[in-house]
Amino acid sequence: MSSYAPLSPPYVHRRGIFLYVPQGVALPNICLRCGGPAVEQRVKKAYSWHDPSLYVLLIMPLIYVIVVMFARRRVKLEIPLCAPHKSQRSSRIGLATGLLLGCVPVPVVMPYLFQADWVVAVAVLLGCGMFVAGGFIAQSTTLLEIREISETHAKFTGASQSFLATVPQIP
Description:
There is one protein chain. By secondary structure, the chain is of the alpha+beta class. It has two domains: 1-81 and 144-171, no CATH class; 83-142. Helix content is 39%, strand content 19%. It has five helices and six strands, in the order E-E-E-H-E-H-H-H-E-E-H. It has a four-stranded antiparallel β-sheet with strand order 1-2-6-5, with no helix packed on it. Strands 3-4 form a two-stranded antiparallel sheet. The protein starts with 12 loop residues before the first strand and ends in a 6-residue tail after the last helix.
């Protein structure tokens, strides 16, 4: 199932756009977004993955949840970012949180503040817009996308070309 050669070296490397991180190996101290020097405080992320064939169990959601709890594989990474990208990510997380938390109370309160018939429709549209915008902004804070986790490595996409250029390529 895995496309990872068992004799590959135990260090971070790439194959095309895929970044391979062996279990227990740290990423280089280079910003994942721009390839510049990273700050010391890394972003800690936990990733989990399970075999996509388990999605067939979604016809029985409770069984799916139980099986996935046992079948999933996990890896923890400390992701290096430079100061501007770390600040940008924090701002986006704050904005997304505000939009998602406000998408219900703002439309509920609006009709009480503005006494007009059209306000209810505008409030509902505003709430839906806040929810969608919050979801898109939250998605933009994703650093790496997991593609596979095996006993030996984790396979990711989403690293910038600048970062990937600093990592050895394995054919």
